[in-house]
Amino acid sequence: MNVLVVEDDDASRELIKEVLSCIGHIPVLASNGLEAMERLLNQDVDLILSDMDMPTMSGLAFHKTVRSIRQYERIPWIFLTAYPTLSKYAKGLTPEYDLILQKPYPIEKLIALFSGKLEEI
């Protein structure tokens, strides 16, 4: 599975890249929404994993842009956030996502998520 990872924190992006690679997925990396949009337009993506708060183009603005394009409106979406209040109110801000992961998240949770075993955590 090709996973678009949109994360402005270098260490977090690299951790997610390593986890995805180790369990057989292909990470497609971007550090903000504008870079992510470019990657999305030039490569097939099966899932988007996006930070909410980023410079240049936030995860919420990126989400809104992607969802406005018919061919991308059904791509599964997972938000990442370090802000509990943003996580709490995200459903009202942008309802078409599948999951929010609260930072910091244990590496076991990432592995379980991408191995289809999140319910076991």
Supply the CATH class: Alpha Beta
Largest sheet composition? 5 strands, parallel
Number of domains: 1
Number of helices: 5
Could you tell me the CATH topology label: Rossmann fold
Strand content: 15-25%
State the fourth-level CATH superfamily: Response regulator
CATH architecture: 3-Layer(aba) Sandwich
- Write down the overall geometry: globular
Q: Low-confidence runs (pLDDT<50, min 5 residues)?
A: none
Determine the N-to-C terminus distance.
22 Å
Helix fraction? 40-55%
The radius of gyration computed from the alpha-carbon positions, rounded to a whole number of angstroms, is: 13 Å
Rounded mean pLDDT score? 83
3D architecture notes:
The chain has 121 residues and is α/β, with parallel strands linked by helices. The protein is built from five helices and five strands; from the N terminus they run E-H-E-H-E-H-E-H-E-H. The chain has a five-stranded parallel sheet, with helices on both faces. Strand 3, helix 3 (59-67) and strand 4 form a beta-alpha-beta unit. Helix 1 (10-22) crosses helix 5 and helix 2 packs parallel to helix 3. The protein is globular and about 35 Å long. The two termini are 22 Å apart. The model has no long low-confidence stretch (mean pLDDT 83).
